[in-house]
Design brief:
9 helices; transcription regulation; Rossmann fold; transcription cis-regulatory region binding; WH-like_DNA-bd_sf
């Protein structure tokens, strides 16, 4: 989930719509609302945030240091002026990148991936699980070198499972990562439907079910 912070509701709603088209969950905040949220949100919910996108905010309303204390997710500032002084000031404030508007949301997603990759020097752009190669940059997975086209939600669930190879993840954690923690229009049980469809497709390609599930414990991706 990407958190968008801007004083203008029209801007946050616009980005929410654009990210949703790319199959990426997002949530919009006014600066003061965000300040209260980041101080009180539960740790498990905060882990669902993949990046913070900072738009127009009054100086002093947001603390980059406090964000960093609570989350390692990248912080990207959106600049509406071609000003070197403004850009340098944003970097001094603590952001990881500054992007001048207008910018396509796919470029923002690519920048987030690049920042996370630099932060984790050993991190790969894909995970190899048995015969599956699962990418983290939006590409469809491959099975024995053959592309397996997947709907966006199913692909995102597979990426999330591959990105958590050493632990089981719950239905709630998957829902938060894929739909965002503020989507009240979608029931959490939709995750089970997506996973059922994903399992069927993987089973047809692999000859076995690579998604191991245990009641009350969650899901885990495993090779044969």
């Amino acid at each position: 989930m990407i958190v968008v912070i801007d004083e203008r509701e029209l801007v946050t709603e616009g980005y929410n719509s654009l990210f949703n088209r790319e199959g990426v969950a997002s949530a919009g905040f006014a600066p003061r609302e965000f300040g209260e949220w980041v101080e009180t949100v539960a740790e498990d919910e905060l882990k669902a945030v993949s990046a913070f996108l900072l738009g127009q905010c009054e100086e002093g309303n947001i603390s980059a240091q406090r964000i960093r204390e609570r989350s390692p997710a990248p912080m990207i500032a959106l600049s509406e002026r071609n000003s070197l002084d403004d850009t340098l000031r944003m970097f001094e404030w603590g952001v990881d990148d500054v992007v001048r508007k207008p910018v396509h949301v796919r470029e923002i997603l690519a920048r987030i991936t690049a920042i996370r990759r630099r932060a984790q020097q050993d991190a790969a752009t894909y995970a190899q699980v048995g015969e599956m190669r699962i990418y983290f940059d939006g590409r469809d997975p491959e099975v024995d070198g053959e592309v397996l086209p997947l709907p966006r939600r199913e692909r995102r669930i597979l990426e999330y499972l591959a990105g958590n190879p050493t632990r089981r993840v719950t239905k709630t954690q998957i829902f938060n990562a894929i739909y965002g923690i503020f989507d009240e229009n979608v029931e959490e049980n939709v995750v089970e439907s997506h996973i059922s469809k994903l399992r069927k497709k993987l089973r047809e390609k692999l000859g076995y079910d690579p998604i191991d599930s245990k009641r009350y414990l969650g899901y885990r991706l495993a090779g044969d």
